[in-house]
Predict the 3D structure of the following.
Amino acid sequence: MRVIGGKARGRQLKSVPGKQTRPITDRVKEALFNILAGDVEGARVLDLFGGTGSVGIEALSRGARHVTFVEIAGKPYRVLKENLRLTGFEDQATTIRGDAFTFLRGEPEEPYDIVYIAPPQYKGLWRKALELLDERPEWVAEEGWVIVQIDPRELEDVPLRHFRLVRKRRYGDTLLLFYERVT
């Protein structure tokens, strides 16, 4: 696992042994950031279920202003902190060891431009997070994105009032769903 673009390009990231996390592949990460293109520069990013930090660190490498990582599990959280240190992005990141749903029930300091949701698979957590954001749309900037990473077998229709699905991209056993805020 490595940073594939920007200031930290080529920097190797540490991973968590075992199946506790499911890191995004370089192919999917590259496709994601090609789609986001200029929307990353200067963005505030929320990486829910942050894992080892691969997506948020990629955003920082490509010019994001700040990334907030939320991760509840101890081993991934420690690896995330180490990866931020290795890439030199500690000052542009906030790390929260805690529950993503509890975090979303709080008040945002300011809206995020990109919210990335990549929870453990097959537990419906992506839907729960998306529904919670729909109840609290102030978490997402008016021109912001909510991006969900799931296994295609998890896909189901989620009725939303404040967001609409605008793009789906499948890369093998990874599906990216792009939602924009309806204003």
